[in-house]
Amino acid sequence: DLGIEDDKYASFIESRLEDFTQGLKKISTWCTIDSAKLKLRNITIPDVAQAKIANAAFWGLKKEVDFDADQEIFDFEIIGERTIQNVKKKSLLAFTIEKTLINQLKAMFLKAGFNLKGITTIPFAFQNFIHTQHLQMQDSPFTIVNVSRKNSEIFCFSNTGLLMTRSIRSGSYNLVENFIKSPDEIVVEYLSALKSIQSKGFLKIKLSCERLIEKILRTSEYCSQNFADNVPMKKFFFIGETADCDPFMELFAKTTLTDVEHFDPVFDALPGSVAGPYPKDANERGLVTTAFSISLSSNEYTPNFLLTSNDKLNEKKKQKINVAASI
Predict the structure, then answer these.
(1) What residues have CB less than 8 Å from 323, skipping those under 6 apart?
(2) At 109, phi and psi to the nearest 5?
(3) 85-100 pLDDT, tens digit each
(4) Any idea what the Cα angle at residue 141 is, between residues 140 and 143, rounded to 5°?
(5) Please, is 238 exposed, middle or buried when counting C-beta atoms within 10 Å of its C-beta (0-12, 13-18, 19+)?
(6) Neighbours of 213 (CB within 10 A)
(7) Contact 297/120 with Cβ under 8 angstroms?
(8) What is the DSSP track for 250-312?
(9) Which range is least confidently modeled, 7-21, 67-81, 148-162, 241-255?
(10) Distances (CA, A) of 127 to 8, 77, 158, 293
(11) Among the listed residues 226, 303, 235, 239, the one whose alpha carbon sits nearest the alpha carbon of residue 265
């Protein structure tokens, strides 16, 4: 396996992107990093003035996790306001990422000859669906679950944005590993072929499904209790390798007594893009959905490790100085 610091990886990315963009290199490009590499917490701070939010967020995160401000990039996002014991507070997502990782990505894309405009993470990319109204939710909170081969990502949202995220080391292969010895494409084929909750094929994996469901529900309940004023999840969306496993979806719905659906945001053509058929394969649909979420990224609403809140504030200050100087 190649690492992002390997020259061969840069060549690989260059060839793939050139094929995808048909040789056009002056294209603003966003990429994502594994959310497991983030130190991210949902924190509550006093209702301080705008100029003091960053400092309050920094020390609020410091109380939750240990991080080195010299070696890590710090940023935050305002979720909204809460009233706790009749006292107005601000809810934030505060997070850090290692500078080394960001610098490696920048260097790799530079070698590949592409302009890297933004680096974000998958939960924030999925949040783009809310900010761009490709996903409109009247009831919240809700959870999006992306089940891949070896792990599952759980994203809990309000109707305005991300509340918390968790990655668990349990995926589709863990459901079938007792009788399928290689985690290849046959896993998705097996799961997608199951149509009845009473079938022998599903009964073989029912206990494993129940364990995965329990982990997902524990995460959502924790979010509801701590970040959503004890309001239970109103809906669960699934993408990834269990999305076409009807008995799994049925079992989840029976266990939680909550609406359970495939994640199906509104897709539309991006400027300059060519519309194509939506894949039938559950895994491929998940990949396309994820890619589309990243393509919606913008510095207006997507956290960007190349342009933090502090960077944006400094840019505004410079613009004010330039305006004042011109006057």
Answers:
(1) none
(2) -70, -35
(3) 889 999 999 999 999 9
(4) 120
(5) buried
(6) 18
(7) yes
(8) HHHHHHH-SEEEE--PPP-PPTT----PPPSSHHHHHHHHHHHHHHT--TTTS-BTTB-HHHH
(9) 7-21
(10) 32, 12, 10, 8
(11) 239
Please check whether residue 94 is in contact with residue 40, taking contact to mean a CB–CB distance below 8 angstroms. Answer: yes
Residue with tokens 């502090």: 310
DSSP state of 246: H
Rounded Cα distance between 141 and 158, Å, is 4
Residue 272, phi-psi category: left (phi > 0), alpha (psi -120 to 50), beta (remainder): left
- What per-residue confidence (pLDDT) applies to 141? 94
Question: C-alpha angle 247/190/259, rounded to 5°?
Answer: 25
Percent of the chain with pLDDT over 90: 61
* CA distances to 133, 160, 225, 261 from 235, in Å: 17, 15, 16, 8
Tokens of 28: 């603003």
Cα–Cα nearest to 105, from 33, 203, 167:
33
Place of tokens 């529900």: 217
DSSP state of 113: T
Query: Which H helix or E strand runs over 94?
Result: strand 87-98
Gyration radius of the chain's alpha carbons = 21
Q: How many CB atoms lie within 10 A of CB 278?
A: 11
* Two structure tokens written together for 104: 């490696």
The two three-digit tokens of residue 300, written as one number:
């207006």
Residues 26-39 have pLDDT tens digits of: 778 999 998 888 99
List, in sequence order, every residue forming a beta bridge with 247; answer none if it has no partner: none
- Cα separation, 230 vs 227, in Å, equals 8
Q: How far is CA 157 from the centre of its chain?
A: 11
Tokens encoding 246: 């009807």
Confidence (pLDDT) at 138: 79
Using DSSP's 3-state secondary structure scheme, residue 29 falls into strand
Residues 105 and 125: their CA atoms lie apart, in Å, by 17
Of the pLDDT bands very low, low, confident and very high (cuts 50, 70, 90), residue 266 is low
